[in-house]
Amino acid sequence: MNRYLLNISYIGTNFRGIQKTVNKLEEARVDTHSIQGCLELALRVFHPKNEIQTVLSSRTDAGVHALHSTLHVDLERTDGKPYDTTILTGVLNRTLDKQNLPIRVLSCQRVQDTFHARYHAIGRTYLYRFAVSRTTPELDKKGSLRNKGYEAFLPVEEIDRCYFLQGNNFDIERLTAASRKFIGVHDFRTFMSVTRQKSPSRDHPMFTVRKIDEINIRPGKSLALGPNAETAEQNYNYWDIEVKAKSFLYKQVRRIVGTLLAIANARIDERCIYQMLTIPSKHNWDHRIQIAPACGLYLCRVHYRNDAFVIPDESSP
């Protein structure tokens, strides 16, 4: 039996999320609506002697993408030899491609049997992409957006890859200044969405305490091509929000980004952030804030220490 770490990326638009749903009544059925389920199905082409059970390092919700995520899996070959990691990568990608799945295995590597994709991770970096309209949208007689801006140009390459905003009084300096309030150790209970999953640890008073190591706001760029790229740059200012921490609560990043966008649009002020951080409660969420949609969120990197990877001797039989 050998353990392998898989470095993966994917577009999450058409998936329910990365984590598979386990149905005890249908244990043999593979959940192909999740990233994990599709990967486990692809791993079956190797016909290992053991049952395939992958372990995720991070969870992402429906519509969230990943530039880099990880999972580990144990595989026992019939002859007892380890799988060649290059062949493992190539066969998995070919299998996923045949099914037209937007999942890519970046690389595979053998790791110690004690390695754990989740528990050995020392940090995660998320990236949120959004674009702000350069022009003021046309208003109707009531002062509302006419047709919610559906007449505006939107590059087709960016559909479900970026969050597009109208540029009414948007102030990136306000956003940048407010982002500093989230850095450090806080009780983020107000910034956690309710989940159906039940766990004894969730009742612990320290469960919602997290440390945000970094929040960086940088100018972004369009992913559009050809003439669409020029038109997109003329119509929008692209921005990237990068958030780094050891771990995150359910929808914490999207709630933080939604709060920062509300600050930038002057729907709330910094006092609102102070109250939500100092009086942590699921009832203290300011409903003037819209949770940032999943389409703009990317799991950018899962971080490990270099000494977490002790590669077995590849020359052994």
Question: Can you offer a commentary on this structure?
Answer:
The radius of gyration is 22 Å and the shape is globular. Helices cover 20% and strands 26% of the residues. Strands 1, 2, 3, 4, 5, 6, 7, 8, 9 and 10 form a ten-stranded mixed sheet that branches. By secondary structure, the protein is α+β, with helices and mostly antiparallel strands.
Please describe the structure with a list of short key phrases separated by commas or semicolons:
single chain; 317 residues; alpha+beta; Alpha-Beta Plaits; 10-stranded mixed β-sheet; globular
The CATH architecture designation of the largest domain is 2-Layer Sandwich
In percent terms, what proportion of residues is strand?
25-35%
Give the oligomer, counting copies of the same chain as homo and different chains as hetero: single chain
Q: Helix coverage percent of residues? A: 10-25%
What's the number of helices? 6
How far from one another are the termini? 13 Å
The outline comes out as globular
Sheet with the most strands, sense and barrel status: 10 strands, mixed
Mean pLDDT: 89
Order of helices and strands: EHEEHEEEHEEHEHHE
- CATH homologous superfamily descriptor of the largest domain: Pseudouridine synthase I, catalytic domain, C-terminal subdomain
Radius of gyration computed on alpha carbons = 22 Å
Name the CATH class of the largest domain: Alpha Beta
User: What structural category arises from helix and sheet content?
Assistant: alpha+beta
Number of domains: 2
Q: How many individual β-strands?
A: 10
Uncertain ranges: 142-147
CATH fold descriptor of the largest domain: Alpha-Beta Plaits
